Amino acid sequence: MQDENLVEVGNLWFKPIISEEVIKDKVNEMGILLGKELNGKNPILIGVLNGCFIFMADLVRAMNIPCEIAFLRMKSYEGTVSSGKMDVVLPPDISFEGRTVLLVEDIVDSGKTLAYLYDMLYEAKVLSVTSVALLYKPLAIKYPIQPDHHCFSITNEFVIGYGLDYNEQGRQLSHLYQLTEKPTI
Ligand code: IMP
Ligand code: MG
To answer: Is the alpha carbon torsion for 28, 30, 33, 39 positive or negative?
Structure first.
């Protein structure tokens, strides 16, 4: 993709790295694969808000199998660096006991969120957990964990778009963008 399509979000500049069309094809392919893997198990898809909302919506339609949807919210990021702290908010009436869970993440960076959620779900006596991330930064991993499935593996640069934000901005962008230098005109 061309650098003239740079966008300014907050006070930073971003360049497109993965186009809407490429994302669409890959997410469809992933949905079909997970639909085959989880069909007949009435899985509960747990999306990690806010970043997963667009990925989850596209993925669940591509899976096209009977399933349930739930969301939880965690925040481990402020700005472009991890703040280290974790907050979790679950729906009040949810039970994971005996369930086949599909964890849906926008991006796995240090792996802290994923590791935390695996522990929480096994403590809640799930039957099984499968994880899928839109994006995976293998070079950023700091925990002994990785997503079972990911759509794209990327370098350590900060990314936005297709649900992912920089300080809550940029989620509406259809392509995925990566942090870049401010253009000199
Ligand atoms: P982890 O717990 O370090 O793996 O971080 C996971 C969370 O950090 C993701 O669910 C995102 O919300 C956020 N995050 C990590 N990297 C990025 C990024 O490049 N752009 C936007 N959010 C990110
Ligand atoms: Mg997230």
So the answer is: negative
